[in-house]
Amino acid sequence: MFPQRLDSPQAYDIAKAMMDGFNRHYRLFRSESARAKHRFETADWHGQQRAQRERIEFYDLRVKECVMRLEKEFKAGAQPMNVWHQVKLHYIGLLVNHLQPELAETFFNSVTTKILHRTHFHNNFIFVRPAVSTEYIENDEPAAKPTYRAYYPTRETLLPTIVSIVENFNLQHGFEDLPRDAAYVLEAIGERLAQVKLRANFQIQVLSSLFFRNKGAYVVGKIINGFIELPFALPVLHSPRSGKLLIDAALFGEDDLQALFSFARAYFMVDMDVPSAYVQFLRSLMPRKPRNELYNALGLAKQGKTLFYRDFLFHLRHSTDSFRIAPGIKGMVMLVFDLPSFPYVFKLIKDYYPLQKDTTREQIKGKYLLVKQHDRVGRMADTQEYSEVAFPRARFDDELIAEIEKFAPSQLEISDRDGDGQVEVIIKHLYIERRMIPLNIYLQEAFDAGLDNASARGQVEGAVIEYGNAIKDMVAANIFPGDMLWKNFGVTRQGKVVFYDYDEIEYLSDCNFRRVPTPRNEEEEMSGEVWYPVGPRDVFPETFAPFLLGNDAVREVFMKHHADLLDVAFWQEHKERIQAGHVHDVFPYERERRFSRLYARSTSARDLPVQDLAESHLSRKEPD
């Protein structure tokens, strides 16, 4: 029961100290995000990568600092539960008019769960549900930027409006030819709004901060016309020709935005006063994307983790199916299970590995952390890491329980730990990631349908091409996947191939790519064993083929599009470029979408009158 009166002299001081801890965290988080603009302007790509990596650690450091302060100043762990009830009530009071209340609630939970015993983790002590609304929050200070800006172009001003949208971000680095790029954007808009009458509410809404990631900055917004809303994003890059800025493409629609904000990409750096307002705006662009993934994409992974767990508990309450061993080939290192009705998989590290897997639990956790902190270039699935996760025992198949007891007994507890009469399966440590169709199963489905079927043949061709592209994108990001078997890759609902088995992952620059030595005699040539010395990080690309290309149809497509992956020169060349400091471009959109294909046009956009451009690219005809 909550106290009837707030009579503890220390409760407010503890709540205020926790709020101070959160405010310090968000101030540092936002400051680092804001500096991304300068790093982009100065093309400091290594600094951008380093900042993206280091920012991930900010949250845990601030939680640790706050816990230490509370123990030192207030002996927080020794305070009675009545005081902690009052701490939460005072903290709720401090959230009134706060610009990041949902993040502050999560910070409270993180600190509190470090101090209190697990049996106290319920509504009375932590924020299982949000206590403060995030609706309509806006910073009212005169100097504050609004969440988004609205523009109301006319027929004659649409092109200059596009120019103004970009110029309003005040990038301190000149554009190569902004009117030219704006004309390409206008043409792309016209292709989607041709034959559409522009209504009275025709407008363009644009989020007030740029989205920075790797070597790009993104303008994100939507075009509103009548009842239609068209999401868009404009990637801004440094021109390889002049070093100045250019708009590289125009992305439109939910699918394009979903790819840009994919769970398999690095987090953005965005300077935000009110992150919940950004999430609300982004959800209007991508209504199918869960809020937790949007918070993740904005670099607020702890909030994403909180929302994911709330969604998971809500789903459990409204479903009745059972957890089961995940379909597919079982891993040697990870035990994977899922809930058929829930689009995620749960992975825990086994206690025992085959002899060929020379690794440890801590090394495997280190690999997952590497991927978390690295640029995932749309090819490596993000994971959420949890400890002491409780599931209802009644929802677990006995076969799954037996599997965990056999392979990961140290990670399993079955008990009524909370003393509430509910027996639970408690997993000590696990990872949760988006469920995909394993690539080997995806290919087998096509084989089963028969390759004389055009659709099945196309499925094989598309999957193999995507598989090679996935490896090449990871190579560009200085990642060698290690185990390249089909079963370690998955296919997303957009048809993208994504890697998800990280226990053998390495930095490409740490690998030693070699050719298989020429046998010196007949005995070596006929040997069924490896007769030459092999170091721990030696890689022999020509040996990939027997493991990957046993199917003739797969071999044909692979050799046509990705034969270079079997050549040591391909790997060595990329390694040397990375060691020389080169940062590759990996685009979250197809290269065919880039405006660079249009630069060869003989007539410059700036040579055409603005009205001619508007009339040629955007028709205002009434629909029939």
From TrEMBL:
Active-site residues from the entry: 382
Keywords: ATP-binding, Cytoplasm, Glyoxylate bypass, Hydrolase, Kinase, Nucleotide-binding, Protein phosphatase, Serine/threonine-protein kinase, Transferase, Tricarboxylic acid cycle
Pfam families named in the record: AceK_kinase (PF06315), AceK_regulatory (PF20423)
Annotated positions binding ATP: 326-332, 347
Residue span(s) of domain Isocitrate dehydrogenase kinase/phosphatase (AceK) regulatory: 15-319
Function: Bifunctional enzyme which can phosphorylate or dephosphorylate isocitrate dehydrogenase (IDH) on a specific serine residue. This is a regulatory mechanism which enables bacteria to bypass the Krebs cycle via the glyoxylate shunt in response to the source of carbon. When bacteria are grown on glucose, IDH is fully active and unphosphorylated, but when grown on acetate or ethanol, the activity of IDH declines drastically concomitant with its phosphorylation.
Protein name (database record): Isocitrate dehydrogenase kinase/phosphatase
Keyword Lyase in annotation: no
Gene name for this UniProt entry: aceK
Presence of the UniProt keyword Transferase in the record: yes
